[in-house]
Design brief:
Blueprint lengths: L5 E3 L4 E3 L12 H36 L13 E11 L2 E14 L18 E4 L7 E5 L11 E3 L8 H7 L2 H10 L3 E4 L2 H6 L8 H10 L4 E6 L3 E4 L1
Parallel strand pairs: 8-10
Antiparallel strand pairs: 1-2, 3-4, 4-7, 5-6, 6-9
């Protein structure tokens, strides 16, 4: 690293931010990374499936029915995918690595289920435990200019370290309870890290996302219960 830059002598690459550190896809390092990433992605899909099934069982036990607990969509973020995109008038196969972002493909894309062909790919945008989250949809036709991508969340306004120092977890828990939001966190630090004040205004983020024509707003979701850690 040289200052904020990142440089690789092996490949003679210079990038403006060390967080962009990378390796050629077909190099030994690149292949090792992709294999590890795919394994992690497979684990995540299996883990979410198991969590969803447990949630259905709890709903059935306490409410007597889980018929409304239908999976809308399951999608990865912070993952690289080999995709075909039109670049300067030519279709190119490229590896798109979405960090803090997720797919937002159009309805006419051949890479999404025909179930969403008339509405575009669902995009799940978590906000924070005290305000809202959003469901968006990709464009109806033609992927957006960001390689068919959208934000995956509101984004942090405070680092985790800063949030732990500035936000009192006990006061936060009381505030959420007064607003009718049930929260269970493993530790006070985790609660502070995920506090509403630690995140940007998700409604403003969605407005900007729509304005940039990356995705279209569909539904705003209000938190009822939150489990962290």
């Amino acid at each position: 690293p040289r200052g904020d830059e990142w440089y690789s002598e092996e490949w003679d690459w210079s990038l403006p931010d060390r967080q962009l550190a990378a390796a050629p896809i077909y190099s030994k390092h690149g292949q090792s990374y992709l294999e590890a990433m795919n394994a992690a992605g497979n684990f995540a899909f299996a883990n979410r499936s198991a969590l969803a099934q447990r949630a259905r069982k709890v709903l059935n036990k306490h409410l007597g029915a889980d018929g409304d607990a239908v999976l809308l969509y399951d999608v990865s973020h912070n993952i690289a995918k080999v995709e075909t995109h039109n670049i300067d008038g030519r279709n190119c196969s490229c590896c798109v690595h979405r960090k803090g972002a997720t797919r937002a493909f159009s309805g006419d894309s051949g890479d999404i289920s025909s179930r969403f062909s008339e509405v575009g790919q669902p995009v799940l945008v978590p906000g924070d435990m005290g305000t809202a989250s959003w469901i968006l949809a990709g464009p109806k036709a033609g992927n957006n200019r960001a390689f068919g991508s959208s934000c995956h969340g509101a984004g942090r306004a405070l680092s985790r370290t800063a949030a732990r120092k500035l936000i009192d977890s006990d006061a936060l828990s009381e505030d959420l309870e007064e607003r009718g939001i049930i929260v269970h966190a493993k530790t006070g630090n985790i609660l502070s890290e995920e506090a509403p004040a630690a995140y940007k205004d998700v409604d403003e983020v969605i407005a900007l996302t729509e304005g940039a024509e990356l995705a279209r707003a569909v539904a705003r979701l209000r938190p009822v219960a939150v489990i962290k850690g």
